[in-house]
Amino acid sequence: MTNVFINWQDVQPEKVRFIDTRFDLSKGAAGREMYDAGHLEGAIYWDLEQDLSDMASRSGRHPMISKERMTELCRKAGLHLEDFIVIYDQGASPFALRAYFLLEWAGFTNMHVLREGYESVKDLFRITKEEPVIAVSHMEPNWKDAIYLDVEAVKKVVAGESEGQLVDARAAFRFKGESEPIDPVAGHIPTAVNFDWEQLKRDGQFLDKELLAEQLQHISDKDKPVIAYCGSGVTAAPLYASLKEAGYSDVKLYVGSYSDWIRENEVEQD
Fold first, then answer.
1. pLDDT above 70 for 1
2. CA torsion, ordered 62, 34, 110, 144, to nearest 10 deg
3. Per-domain residue ranges for the chain?
4. Per-residue pLDDT for 55 more than 90?
5. Closest of 184, 157, 169 to residue 61, by C-alpha
6. 68-126 pLDDT, tens per residue?
7. In CATH, what number does 145-261 get?
């Protein structure tokens, strides 16, 4: 099994590169404000919409950034592929896991998400309002394109031309098409099964490895490809990471997700 999450007791701050990804989907500036008010010493800040999404793209509500932008982001952060990186958000949120996915896509291999989140550990680590001075790196990504699916690849899965089980991370009422509070069309991508990502967490943190494995064991055959998606690609990231943590060997993410799919494709309701 992959160790996506790390507990605070296993973090040695002097050996870690921290990335703060706190955010609020209802107030875009809130994450940066939280960071400026206090963050783990040495942490840089990555914003969901300014850094981790291409908001100018039409491919969904939080579209994938380009390889060029991801490379620039990592270099400006002074990162190297071999760095021990710990990403955190406010706790039991999807934002750190979005950054985790992008780092994995770029070829980083030693990054983890703090299971407890900032609110639970702020009294256990050194906190500062100072932004660290970072020396720019010249890292060269080692892209793992296999983990990232676009709409054309998902079409092949739906048509049965490619193997894979789509897993929708939204609430059941949205998956079934009973109502849709955000997107203009209700329903889900054909052939998908549903697993609400909220079931992956409890008491402000993500479940431990054994509980995740238990929760997710009936999704699909663990040796077959599974593809996580949600509404905009954000809350699919916790499902993606948890499937990996639970022992699924071939996990992918459709970043465009449902908001991208419905632009030109049919949906199912049940």
1. no
2. 10
3. 5-128, 145-261
4. no
5. 184
6. 999 999 999 999 999 999 999 999 999 999 999 999 999 999 999 999 999 999 999 99
7. 3.40.250.10
CA atoms lying within 13 Å on the CB side of residue 161: 6
Contacts 24+ apart (CB under 8 A), 213-217: 213/1, 213/245, 213/246, 213/247, 215/242, 215/246, 216/242, 216/243, 216/246, 216/248, 217/246
Distance of alpha carbon 34 from alpha carbon 30, whole angstroms: 6
Q: Domain 5-128 carries which CATH code?
A: 3.40.250.10
- Calculate the average pLDDT of the chain: 95
Residues with catalytic function: 230
Two domains, one topology: 5-128 and 145-261: yes
pLDDT, position 12 = 93
| CA–CA distance, 238 with 140 (Å, rounded to integer) | 26
Query: What is the C-alpha separation between 72 and 205, in angstroms, rounded?
Result: 31
